[in-house]
Amino acid sequence: MSPEKHADELLARIRVHGAIPRHVAIIMDGNGRWARERLLPRPLGHRSGMQSVRAVVKGALALGVEWLSLFAFSQENWQRPATEVGALMSLLEEYIAREVDELREKGVRVRVLGDLERLTPAAAAAVDRVIRDTAHNDRLTLNLFISYGSRAEIVRAARLLARDVAEGRMSPDDIDEEAIAARLYTADCPDPDLLIRTSGELRVSNFLLWQIAYTELYISDVLWPDFGRRELYEAVLAFQGRERRFGRVSA
Ligand code: FPP
Question: In the Enzyme Commission scheme, what number(s) does this protein have (predicted)?
Answer without folding.
Answer: 2.5.1.-
